[in-house]
Specification:
Mean pLDDT: 83
Oligomer: single chain
Helix content: 55-70%
Shape: rod-shaped
């Protein structure tokens, strides 16, 4: 069984073509695997960054909540101490008002400002006054907390930063 030079050349070319095709296919598979790996690494890094930012935002929200709750509790404690002092008679709740001089008949003597007592909140209005003070303190802390949340959490989030590609006119 003799193989002629032309047949040897054709067989060699066929084997070379098959090997080259197999090598090219393996290289394409390798390139696809590298692209998939790079994509997965990029996605992983993005998810880690998103988790880090979310953690920072939650920590900032918690700090704001703790601070505003502490300030609200302090204000409510001050209001409670004032309420107790007023109830015990240690303090009074002055009201900014003008007291008119009572009309005194001329026979009893001249009336003056010294005859008028200082204006003070009526006893039945005191609970409403303290309720309003508590509600005012709560509203103030809620507003300040929302402002802090807006400034420190929402405006720092990646979604709040402008994206030039998204904002560009099409």
């Amino acid at each position: 069984m003799n193989i002629g030079p032309l047949q040897l050349l054709l067989r060699t070319l066929l084997v070379g073509f098959v090997l080259w095709t197999a090598f090219d296919w393996v290289m394409d598979q390798r390139d696809d695997a590298i692209r998939e790996r790079d994509s997965a690494v990029s996605e992983r890094d993005g998810l880690r960054e998103a988790a880090r930012i979310s953690g920072e935002m939650l920590a900032a929200r918690d700090r704001i909540d703790q601070q505003r709750t502490r300030e609200l509790n302090d204000e409510q404690n001050k209001n409670l101490a004032l309420r107790r002092a007023v109830d015990d008679g240690v303090k009074r709740l002055p009201v900014r008002a003008t007291c008119t001089v009572p009309v005194v008949p001329a026979t009893t003597g001249a009336g003056g400002v010294a005859d008028a007592g200082t204006a003070e909140l009526a006893a039945d209005a005191r609970p409403d006054y303290f309720t309003l003070r508590d509600q005012l303190a709560l509203s103030k802390q809620m507003i300040l907390g929302l402002q802090d949340h807006l400034l420190l959490v929402i405006q720092r989030s990646p979604a709040a930063t402008p994206n030039p590609q998204m904002d560009a006119p099409q």
